[in-house]
Design goal:
Elements: E1 4-6, H1 7-14, H2 18-26, E2 33-35, E3 38-42, H3 43-57, H4 62-70, H5 79-126
Helix pairs in contact: 3-4, 4-5
Organism: Alkalimarinus sediminis
InterPro entries: DNA-bd_dom_put_sf, MerR-type_HTH_dom, MerR_fam
GO molecular function, one term: DNA binding
Length: about 130
């Protein structure tokens, strides 16, 4: 028999709220079955939740994570999924590199502004 999980078990395992899990369900990323009011999550749902949270940590949007999950095809060796993931990683690295450059430029501008401000302050206090 396949392993199943209750929402509270997944919530504790991945340190997310049950509301978060229900949100991912409403977005079509998780598809639990029901036993009365209980949600019963499959091992695939568990894997999908793990991928969603990993994607979030890597800076991927929920839509990007959903696209990657939908590309899951073990019969093909997941080549399309892996290729797409590599492309997204490359895009994310480029974005982070640009953000780092922008931050360094902003720090230099702040340093310059601070220097001018301190010089002006020192000059006005000396008078």
């Amino acid at each position: 028999m396949a392993k199943t999980y209750l929402i509270g078990e997944l919530s504790k395992e991945f340190d997310v709220t049950t509301r978060t899990i229900r949100f991912y369900e409403s977005e079509g990323l998780l598809a639990p079955t029901r036993d009365g009011q209980k949600r019963i999550y499959s091992d695939q749902d568990r894997v999908n939740l793990k991928l969603i949270l990993r994607g979030k940590r890597l800076g991927f949007s929920l839509a990007e994570s959903k696209d990657l999950i939908e590309l899951y095809d073990p019969e093909s060796g997941n080549t399309k999924q892996l290729k797409t993931l590599l492309e997204k990683i490359e895009q994310q690295r480029a974005l982070l590199a640009q953000q780092l450059t922008d931050i360094q430029l902003m720090q230099a501008e702040l340093d310059d502004a601070e220097l001018r401000c301190r010089e002006a302050f020192t000059h006005s206090c000396a008078e």
